[in-house]
Amino acid sequence: MLLFIGYVIVLGSILGGFMIAGGNPILLMHVSEFVVIGGVSIGVLIIASPKDVLNNVIRDIKEGFSGVSETKEAFIDLLKLLYEMFMLSRRNGLIALDEHVGSPKDSAIFTRYPTFLKEKEHVDFLVNALRPLIDGKIKPEQLHGVLEEQLDAMEEEAGAGIGVMNLVGDSLPGIGIVAAVLGIINTMSAIAEGPEKVGEKVAAALTGTFLGVLGAYGFVNPLASRVKFNHRMKFMYYKVMLVSISGFAKGLAPLMAVEVARRSLDKAIQPEASELEEMMKSLGKKQ
Fold first, then answer.
1. Residue-range definition of the domain harbouring residue 203
2. CB-based contact 130:245 (threshold 8 Å)
3. pLDDT tens digits along 204-230
4. Which residues have a Cβ under 8 Å from the Cβ of 238 and sit 6 or more positions away?
């Protein structure tokens, strides 16, 4: 929603200022310039992106408009889920987690947190983090390094889409110049048609430069920044799982393991320590 509001403010400011100065917005509507700039931008995006990266870019753009799923409530649900898993393991041993990790959709614990369960990537990360511990295939002190390597690889993959978006944004002013040059070439061929026709074509050419610069700094680059922020929230979510699971594996008490994760959160989404402890105690009473 905020992204839409921002775009409306950008467009409103541009058109409002132009109209206050006596301009007519219709003068900016040159279809040929939109075709050149839009077509070349899409072409650059496709040329620069392998199929997987292109799919990620499309998904990132959708999430940029719809917002991230990693809200404060989602982080709190994750902390609760982890605490319940740790408490079960503390009482009955790691083997007690096997049925939950083996079939999360049928798990009595996982199904209490549908916001977590609906995100397959989140479930897979948690399951793959706990599985080696349950099977005894890894030492507790080795787990942190393994999960960190996995997270680094995921971040690198996600960052490729942002790089492509920045490339398109940085290219747009140049693409606008290309559109303007084409317009000037078209203008030169119309000199004999008189000043009025020449002026119209020069205006169309200048519109190409305008659209390229506006597209870069008013739309694409800000969107890339929003996507980068969304990714940061996503990987903060994974980091919560990483630090809490590796901490518990090394011997931290369940409450302390989730407390370490709580401290890794941004202040805007971080519950108070007393609030977290109260929530965990209430979970203990229900069990």
1. 32-47+71-286
2. yes
3. 888 889 999 999 999 999 999 999 998
4. 122, 125, 151, 154
pTM of the model: 0.82
Question: What is the rounded CA–CA span in Å between residue 215 and residue 237?
Answer: 32
- 27 domain residue, yes or no: no
Of residues 85, 99, 127, the one with CA closest to residue 238: 127
Question: Which residue, among 67, 89, 32, has the nearest Cα to 205 in the 3D structure?
Answer: 32
The tens digit of pLDDT for each residue in 222-268 reads 999 999 998 998 899 999 999 999 999 988 999 999 999 999 898 88
Residue with tokens 């999960």: 147
Q: How many domains, in total, are found in the chain?
A: 1
Residue identified by tokens 């992204």 is 3
- Is 61 a member of any domain? no
The answer to whether position 3 is within a domain reads no
Residue 157 lies in a domain: yes
Reply yes or no on whether the pLDDT at 169 is more than 60. Answer: yes
Provide the sign of the torsion angle of the four alpha carbons 254, 256, 259, 260, taken in this order. negative
